[in-house]
Structure formats: structure tokens, C-alpha cells
Amino acid sequence: DDDLPKKDEL
Amino acid sequence: MNIFRLLGDLSHLLAIIILLLKIWNSRSCAGISGRSQFLFAIVFTARYLDLFFTFISLYNTVMKIVFLATSYGTLYLMYIKFKATYDSNHDTFRIEFLILPAIALALLINEEFTVIEILWTFSIYLESVAILPQLFMVSKTGEAESITSHYLFALGSYRALYILNWIYRWFLTEKLNAIAIVAGIVQTILYCDFFYLYLTKVLKGKKLQLPA
């Protein structure tokens, strides 16, 4: 889903 | 990646290294909650399953592997290698009271009802309270060794730096994850009392001792 933020955090 | 995020991650890594070195050098895990460490291992395992599906960056992949490996390494030292020194009498927090609500909340409040997303959400909720058995242990014994205090301070700093990271990202109008932010703020609040004791006692060379 493009609306969700990318999970780039640990 | 911004400076707060990087310092947050490094602080997290430092906390884990302090803990491992403390156990290794003293050949003892006295004063450390095995239950909190067990919860952290669950947190990392549930959250980093995406290692198999998504690639974000080399930094991200390496850090995830390091966090997973060190969390299992800590469990190995506590429950196998130095088991005789494990202070289980004081480590009595009922972790099912944290795990079950985290599962329930992840099923109810998530962004997508998929296995991987629910596991991720569960890991976020569980991480926010995973330190409670450790804080409970400190309050039960009424004190903590300086090295344990440094560990807790590094771990709490990681959370506080993540909040600064979100504020920074908010100003850059980046997309933010509400679940991670709310849980992160809850998690940071849990450290506030400890931060106060750390700054007023440990840094002045005194032992962290709770008022009787």
C-alpha cells in the first residue's frame, strides 16, 4: 500500500 | 536517515553491548531481568521477519541481524552459560500480562490485517512495555549496579532520540507511522522516573538506590 509509510526504522 | 535516528540506533546498540560486556566480564547476570531480555528477543523476531521479504538498505539489514543475534546471545548467556548467577527470585514480573494485551491490541489496532503487519504491530506494542520486568526488578531490590543503570540509560536515550527523529521527520513533512509514535512515546515515558534517578544519583557517583 503506497499510502502507508515505509518501515525504514528499526 | 537523520542524526537523531542514527544516534538513537547507536544508543540502542550501545545499550546491548554494555549489557553483553557486563555479563561477560563479570561472568554474572545478577540484577538483569531475563524476562525483559526474553521479551526483546520476541520483539526483534516478530518485527524483523521482513528481512525475508523487503530490502531497505544495507544499514537496515545489518542492524536487524545484529539486534537479533545479540538478543539471542544475551539469552544464551543468561539462561545457559551463566544460569547459576541469574537472579530469578527477583525476576517475577508476569510477562503474560504484557504479551497477551500486546497480541489483542495488535489484532484490534493495526494498519493492515495481514500476518506480517500484525506481527510488526505486536512487536511495536510489546517493545513499548518490554522493559517493565527490568524496572520492576530494580524497584523490588531497591537498587541497581552502575553498569545496569548505564544500560538502562542508553536504552531510554534510544527511545528519546527516536522521538526527536519523528519531530525532525514531521518538519520535513515525511510520512510517519502513528502506531510507532504513540507506542514510542509510551515507552519513553516509562523511563522518565529512571532518568531522574540516573541524572541525580548515578552521574554524581552514587549508586542507584530507590528511596525506602
From TrEMBL, chain B:
Membrane spanning stretches: 62-80, 92-109, 115-138, 150-172, 178-199
Keyword Transmembrane helix recorded: yes
InterPro entries: ER_ret_rcpt (IPR000133)
Membrane disposition: Multi-pass membrane protein
Source organism superkingdom: Eukaryota
Primary subcellular site in the record, as a coarse category: endoplasmic reticulum
Sample GO molecular function, one term: ER retention sequence binding
Gene Ontology BP annotations: protein retention in ER lumen; protein transport; vesicle-mediated transport
Segments forming a coiled coil: none
Protein location: Endoplasmic reticulum membrane
Gene Ontology CC annotations of this record: endoplasmic reticulum membrane
Keywords carried by this UniProt record: Endoplasmic reticulum, ER-Golgi transport, Membrane, Protein transport, Receptor, Transmembrane, Transmembrane helix, Transport
Similarity comment: Belongs to the ERD2 family.
Protein name: ER lumen protein-retaining receptor
Natural source organism: Bemisia tabaci
